[in-house]
């Protein structure tokens, strides 16, 4: 699967309707973004179970601001609609591969239970 451009109109629906979504926030003038693009594209070809989105921060300024993107490239990972990773800086291919595997391996039932407990004002289980 190739990368897909995301906009403010389809960002939320893409995140919530797919199991795993990685998002690359980039801009055309950004040198590190251009160096990271082929690494990200190659990962998208190797991981058909993951949606790889790209947000052009010049074109989608409000979306970048809403997500507090202050440096690019920034990579975010979402699992079951929950942001589980966000980091500025281009990732080398082995680190991106490792990130994808870590996102796949997350204990989402535990994470969702912890979030639910926090939203209800209860301490997380085991604390």
UniProtKB/TrEMBL annotation:
Residues 2-105 form the Thioredoxin domain. It comes from the Bacteria. GO terms for cellular component: cytosol. The keyword RNA-binding does not apply. The keyword Membrane does not apply. Pfam families: Thioredoxin. GO terms for molecular function: protein-disulfide reductase activity. InterPro entries: Thioredoxin, Thioredoxin-like_sf, Thioredoxin_CS, Thioredoxin_domain. Keywords: Disulfide bond, Electron transport, Redox-active center, Transport. Belongs to the thioredoxin family. NCBIfam families: thioredoxin. This is Thioredoxin.
